[in-house]
Amino acid sequence: MLREKDLFDRSAAALDALDPLIAVYRKQDRELLLRVANSLPRRNDVLEMRRRHYESMLHRLGVAVWDAYDERAAQFLCLERKAKAPGAELPVGSMRIVPNTPVWGELRDDFGELRELLPEEAAPGGGFTVVGREVVIPSHRSLGVSAALVHASLTWWAARTRARRLVLTSLASASSAARFFGAQPVTEPLPLGPGRVPVIVMTVELDTARERAESWLRGRGWVIHHGGRPAWIEAEGEWLPSWTRCPTPSPELS
Q1: How far apart are CA 69 and CA 60, in angstroms?
Q2: In 101-205, which ranges are continuous DSSP H helix?
Q3: How far apart are the C-alpha atoms of 146 and 134, rounded to whole Å?
Q4: Which own/partner pairs from 117-126 qualify as long-range (CB within 8 Å, at least 24 positions apart)?
Q5: What percent of the chain has pLDDT over 90?
Q6: I want to staple 193 with a disulfide (CB 3.0 to 4.6 A). Which of 62, 155, 223, 244 is the partner?
């Protein structure tokens, strides 16, 4: 007996609602789709990228590829889609945001007592936000993925919290990337983990990082669509996106 309605569209819509599309960045024949990764398949995409491209460094830093903070974090996933293959979405980057306190969180796990580590303005009222675990696959570095991750995730986060100062731990060798988005060091290089990897704790205003990311993207020809779902349509020989409103983000991470 034939079903009255194919269930594929219904199941796809359910996953879309669970992993809301929060922004789309388009340049020529490329799209970067930014989602909040809540479902198991999307989080597996994040985990697989970490395993392939970041696992050895994480072990040197003394942290697991997926830890308890990942279960509480807002996870952001960047997928690339090209006009010539509109059905294919390639995971190309990810990042997480985790609320911390002086007595609980990944920063305390890494460095212990925080009162002498963080300036008072970085943790007003005792709580602060840690941004980290950014991964961009090697083939897509310097192609806009990092800027899109920063811009989309901070826009999403800013709508859900009053926190306006962010904390991050950067590899000393890669701190120039964080400085590009406005981050400033609050420590000298510190040895972390069994590999005694030199890292620097840095802070940045949320709005500063978001604005710098947006400026970089627009300056290189990226068109930004907030909260849109692309539906590729062909018109006059060119591929053009039509936009619809995205689902409401998952309340678990609001």
Answers
A1: 18
A2: 106-111, 145-158, 175-180
A3: 8
A4: 117/186, 117/187, 117/201, 118/167, 118/186, 118/201, 118/203, 119/186, 119/203, 121/165, 122/165, 122/167, 122/186, 122/203, 123/167, 124/165, 126/101, 126/102
A5: 68
A6: 62
Question: Do residues 44 and 115 make contact, with C-beta atoms less than 8 angstroms apart?
Answer: no
Give the Cα separation of 117 and 191 in Å (integer). 14
Query: Look-up: residue for tokens 């050895």?
Result: 56
Locate tokens 């999403």: which residue? Answer: 156
Question: Does the structure show a pLDDT above 80 at 9?
Answer: no
Q: What is the DSSP letter of 250?
A: P
- In this structure, is the dihedral angle defined by the CA atoms of residues 153, 157, 158 and 162, taken in order, positive or negative? negative
Domain limits, the chain? 19-228
The letter for the amino acid at 31 is E
> What tens digit of pLDDT does each residue of 164-215 get?
899 999 999 999 999 999 999 999 999 999 999 999 999 999 999 999 999 9
Q: Which position has the token pair 């904390």?
A: 167
Q: Which CATH superfamily is domain 19-228 in?
A: Gcn5-related N-acetyltransferase (GNAT) (3.40.630.30)
Q: How confident is the model at residue 243 (pLDDT cuts 50, 70, 90)?
A: very low
Give 30-66 pLDDT, tens digit per residue. Answer: 999 999 999 999 999 999 999 999 999 999 999 999 9
Q: Of 23, 18, 235, 46, which is closest to residue 134 (Cα–Cα)?
A: 46
Chain centre to alpha carbon of residue 119: 25
